[in-house]
Every structure is written in C-alpha cells, then in structure tokens.
Amino acid sequence: MLINSVKVKITARESGADLCGIASVASFCDAPAGCRPQDIYSKCKSVVVYAKRMLPESMHAESCIPYTNLCNFLSRQLDETGIQICEELESMGMGSVTIPSGDPYGYSDKDGEYGQGSISLRHAGYQAGLGVIGKNNLLINMKLGNIIQLGAVLVDTELEPDRPAEYGICPPDCHICTDACPAHALDGQSVNYGLCKAHSLCRNEKGFELNKCNICRKVCPYYAGIKVK
Question: Which residues have CB under 8 Å from 212's CB, separation 6+?
C-alpha cells in the first residue's frame, strides 16, 4: 500500500506536478450527493490530487489575457498529467479515471449561487494534505500559496492517504479578500459563484472567454506562500 502511494507521487512529479497528495474516499462522505468520488467512479477507493504552480506576475498584467492564457495552459497540462498517472497506474494493475482541471462546471442550486466541478478540487486538495481553504475560498499551500491549479485522479485501489493540513492561514481579523471583492461574492466562509462568475468571466468580440478578475487571489498576503522566519 505504502509503496504504491510513493510510486503514484513519484509519477505525478515526473509528469510535471509540483505537489501531490492522496485522500481516502471516506473523507468525502460529507460532500454533496453527485459530487462524491464514488458518484463519478463507483470503484473509487482513493483520490490522487496534484497541482502546478502558476506564474504570479501574470496576475499583475494590465490585460487579463496573459492570466487567462496561463490558466488554460495549466488546465491542459494538468489533464495530461492525469492521463500519464492513469497510464502508470494501469501498468501497476490499478484502474483509474481523471477529473478535469477546468470545465465542465456545474451549479449545485437552481439560483447558481453555489457550484463546482465533478468534485470540489480545493476540498480534495485539503483532504490530500496539499493546503487549507482560505477566506477567499482558494486552497492555500504552505510553500506555494494560492497560486496553484489542481487536478485529480480517482483510483480503484486503497492507497495510504495523507493527513489534512493542520496549519492555519487566515488570521481571524483579516478581511482583505472579502473587502476587495468587486462582486461582493465572498463572506469569509463561502463564495457566491453566481456573483463571482458574472463579474470574473466575459467573452470578447470574437467569442473567447476571458478570466478578467483574480483580485481575491492576488490581494491575499499569503498568495505566494507563508514566509517562515
């Protein structure tokens, strides 16, 4: 069991991931119905979660095009990483399926206030020990901060899981991200995706979708990680 876990993490690293952790399927028991790993892949017993670091300066460009391009590129890379992990797992006699890093994306209520992908990657990342969820609703890693993008693979074998991260991130009196959100979509506990998406996503005159807002990410004091003295 332990050997397989180590091999999976090595495979993820060799495939380009900067972070990799493993969560037990049991840790998703409180996830909404339809968004649990076993709802997507009934054989699932473990979830491999991996991440790539974003280039932080893209968030500070006056145009949103560099940031959009980076997000799309990393999504493709993470999906390729997932396929490579699945191929390696197959060679070890394990079955697995990939979860897309980006779309498709759905909403969990009729008003579109709350939503997520096939599974919540940020919660999967927390369960796999990759970080904690901040008031901006982003997964924040100790070393890489919130400038990471996530992917996952559902595995039919019980791998040794990592423990959820135990360090704290957001001070109780910090409200920088909630105050800075131009869409007023953050309350410090959750995000209203209807408000967030309406403000952060747009299409240009040629029909290309652009990510025009990343304020909650870049104003965080720990966006690039916690600087330990």
Answer: 64, 68, 199, 200, 201, 202
Distance of CA 188 to the CA centre of its chain: 18
Which strands, in side-by-side order, build the sheet including 96-99?
19-24, 46-53, 148-155, 96-99
- For 143-181, give the DSSP string: TTBT-EEEEEEEESS-PPPPPPP----S-TT--HHHHH-
Asked whether the beta carbons of 23 and 127 are under 8 A apart, the reply is yes
pTM of the model: 0.89
Residue 137 contacts residue 186 (beta carbons within 8 Å): yes
Report pLDDT digits (tens) over 5-42. Answer: 898 999 999 999 999 999 999 999 888 877 899 999 99
Distance CA 50, CA 226 (A): 20
Q: Cβ distance 218 to 60 under 8 Å?
A: yes
Alpha-carbon distance of 211 to 228, in angstroms, equals 32
Amino acid, res. 151: G
Tens-place pLDDT, residues 102-126: 765 554 455 555 555 678 999 999 9
